[in-house]
């Protein structure tokens, strides 16, 4: 048996690239065991994964945790948002899941916005103006391009729903993740019948929305996971809402997450509804709201530029003349799904290090441009920006965010915040606490604060100017 002070819980992060599992002491937040296993994602026009890989990766990650996982009293799954999982009558995938960064549904997104009242109506009804990342647009794409797959579908799930259902045998989701589908009305907190009818999706195919603090089910015994039968299963949630729980976020504290995607968000008491579509009006996982802006190109795009240049990712040099917009996968913020990367200002004396710094600048510019829209008008702008995600410990990322934001930047020492947030949710089932309060008790935001420096207005203006001037080119798809 473990030497934990309290009961053990398991938090899972099933992300784009891998599944990670943490066994956590619910009393102290100490991670007593961990495991990780990779997924594969298709390349080319789409971004797809076989959901069965996620289950296999979960099994492997939990087995790496050893006996500690068997001792756990509760488990929760945090997962990548927006992915469309279609299941047949036996619960098997009809086809690979369409992931959040698959932007083939851009035409369907534009059409749906127009057909159902325009951006303002969408924002008022669902909290968001759907772009090609949203699940509803992926379902419309599937109906148009693979009608046989739609006819074979007997259940529609999100990635975290799929894993939770395999644990419990029951189809459930939560308000945080379902708010990113485009078919959940944030005003009524229920599935939107008009939207579902318009896209031909029977609401009977959708999971039950479990409320915060409610038990989604218990672990059934028909599996090969190291859980005891009857282990409690929490609702789970989307990755950003899980990370917000993991940080114990209070309203008004801004977060910038640097991962495969980049995100900026903050908890709010006010239901968001941005008709420009820049801010997605997501719900959070404990009853409030999580206005969020997301970019498709973040750490992977910058790392790709470093690889092309033959440089280490930290080998940056100051630049004042070259601009690089690293939109290698199209882009969501700004809404340019057909765009590719763009380089401007190249000279004979431009160095590889300057090009690499320009890639960092271009990626961070997109995120900071949305930060003021994410925060409530009365938010304190002097509060440190919490920097999390895989890139948060990189010196080049830290200094770029610091220089372009002009804000103090805090880098929490806690790692795997999505999995920690899921663990806090699982712990809340056992203790009756709000999961964010659990995370605050665990002191997950402890870490160094980098003092504010003068904001680099010249670089921000230069990037904004290039982006504006190049808009017609960026709006033109490069796909043949």
Describe the structure.
It is a single chain. Helix 11 runs antiparallel to helix 12 (352-374), helix 12 packs across helix 13 and helix 14 packs across helix 15 (435-442). Strands 1, 2, 3, 5, 13, 14 and 15 form a 7-stranded mixed sheet that branches. Strands 18-19-17-16-22-23-24 form a 7-stranded mixed sheet, sandwiched between helices. Helix 13 links the parallel strand 22 (385-388) and strand 23. The protein contains 17 helices and 24 strands. With 480 residues, the chain is α/β, with parallel strands linked by helices. It starts with 7 loop residues before the first strand and ends in a 6-residue tail after the last helix.
Chart the SSEs and their pairings.
Layout: E1 8-14, E2 18-25, E3 31-38, E4 48-49, H1 51-64, H2 67-71, E5 74-79, E6 85-87, E7 97-98, H3 106-115, H4 119-126, H5 135-145, H6 147-152, E8 155-157, H7 159-168, E9 172-174, H8 175-178, E10 184-185, E11 190-191, H9 193-199, E12 208-210, E13 217-218, E14 232-233, E15 237-238, H10 239-247, E16 255-258, E17 262-265, E18 280-283, E19 289-295, H11 299-309, E20 323-325, E21 342-344, H12 352-374, E22 385-388, H13 395-405, E23 409-410, H14 417-431, H15 435-442, E24 449-450, H16 457-469, H17 471-474
Parallel strand pairs: 1-5, 5-14, 5-15, 9-12, 16-22, 22-23
Antiparallel strand pairs: 1-2, 2-3, 4-7, 6-8, 10-11, 13-14, 16-17, 17-19, 18-19, 20-21, 23-24
């Amino acid at each position: 048996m473990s030497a934990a002070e309290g009961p053990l819980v398991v938090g899972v992060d099933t992300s784009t690239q891998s599944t990670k599992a943490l066994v956590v002491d619910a009393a102290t937040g100490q991670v007593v065991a961990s495991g990780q296993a990779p997924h594969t994602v298709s390349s080319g026009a789409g971004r797809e994964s076989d959901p069965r890989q996620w289950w296999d990766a979960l099994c492997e990650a939990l087995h790496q945790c050893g006996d500690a996982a068997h001792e756990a009293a509760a488990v929760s799954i945090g997962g990548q948002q927006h992915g469309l999982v279609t299941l047949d009558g036996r619960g098997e995938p009809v086809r690979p899941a369409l992931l959040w960064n698959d932007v083939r549904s851009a035409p369907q997104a534009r059409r749906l916005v127009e057909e159902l009242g325009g951006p303002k109506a969408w924002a008022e009804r669902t909290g968001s103006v759907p772009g090609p990342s949203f699940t509803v647009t992926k379902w419309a794409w599937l109906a148009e391009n693979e009608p046989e797959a739609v006819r074979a579908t007997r259940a529609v799930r999100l990635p975290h729903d799929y894993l939770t259902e395999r644990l419990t045998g029951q189809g459930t989701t939560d308000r945080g993740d379902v708010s990113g589908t485009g078919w959940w009305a944030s005003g009524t907190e229920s599935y939107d019948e008009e939207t579902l009818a318009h896209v031909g999706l029977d609401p009977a195919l959708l999971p039950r929305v479990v409320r915060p603090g409610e038990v989604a089910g218990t672990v059934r015994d028909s599996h090969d996971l190291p859980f005891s039968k009857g282990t409690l299963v929490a609702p789970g949630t989307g990755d950003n809402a899980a990370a917000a729980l993991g940080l114990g976020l209070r309203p008004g504290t801004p977060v910038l997450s640097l991962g495969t995607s980049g995100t900026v968000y903050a908890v709010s008491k006010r239901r968001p509804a941005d008709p420009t579509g820049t801010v997605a009006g997501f719900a959070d996982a404990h009853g409030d709201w999580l206005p969020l802006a997301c970019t498709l190109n973040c750490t992977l795009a910058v790392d790709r530029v470093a690889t092309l240049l033959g440089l280490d990712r930290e080998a940056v040099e100051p630049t004042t003349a070259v601009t690089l917009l690293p939109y290698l996968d199209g882009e969501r913020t700004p809404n340019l799904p057909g765009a590719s990367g763009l380089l401007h200002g190249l000279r004979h004396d431009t160095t590889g290090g300057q090009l690499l710094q320009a890639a960092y600048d271009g990626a961070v510019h997109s995120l900071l441009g949305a930060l003021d829209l994410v925060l409530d008008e009365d938010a304190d702008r002097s509060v440190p920006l919490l920097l999390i995600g895989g890139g948060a410990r990189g010196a080049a990322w830290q200094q770029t965010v610091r220089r372009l934001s002009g804000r103090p930047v805090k880098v929490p020492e806690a790692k795997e915040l999505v999995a920690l947030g899921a663990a806090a949710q699982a712990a809340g089932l056992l203790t009756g606490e709000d999961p964010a309060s659990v995370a605050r008790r665990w002191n997950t935001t402890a870490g160094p604060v980098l003092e504010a420096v003068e904001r680099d207005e010249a670089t921000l203006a230069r990037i904004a100017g290039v982006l504006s001037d190049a808009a017609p080119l960026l709006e033109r798809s490069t796909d043949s």
